[in-house]
Amino acid sequence: MSFTTWNNEYSVGIDEIDDQHKGLVDCIANLEESIEGVDEKQRWTAVHYAIVQLTDYTRIHFSVEESLMRILGYPQRDAHIAQHNIFISFLKNVQRKSITHDISEDEIVRYLREWLLTHILRDDKQYAVWFEAANSGGARRMT
Ligand SMILES: [Fe+2]
So where are the chain's domains? Predict the structure, then answer.
């Protein structure tokens, strides 16, 4: 398995957000690596730790995005936050499950990776375009 890596096509054009998205991609790669590279005895600890790390990093990142949306009055904020909440619930379930089960099945990791990358490419790019327009006076602020 090749581990997930950052690709410039994921860039939303805001350096601080790109840096955090790179951090999320690193967390996913860590998870993939923990499943592949560790001997079986250490796998449980490594996988569980990688999930906890991904969940914590995701929470911090989402709260930064949500603060920016609130401050700038992004009109799609509620729908975007709803998506974040669904993903956090999924992560919390995976984290809970990882305590008692082997969660290294392909489909869980594939879902995490695809959700994040699709979210960045579709939804985060959408708010980035709107932020840019708002910053140059092209969008009406809600607040
Ligand atoms: Fe987002």
Answer: 15-135
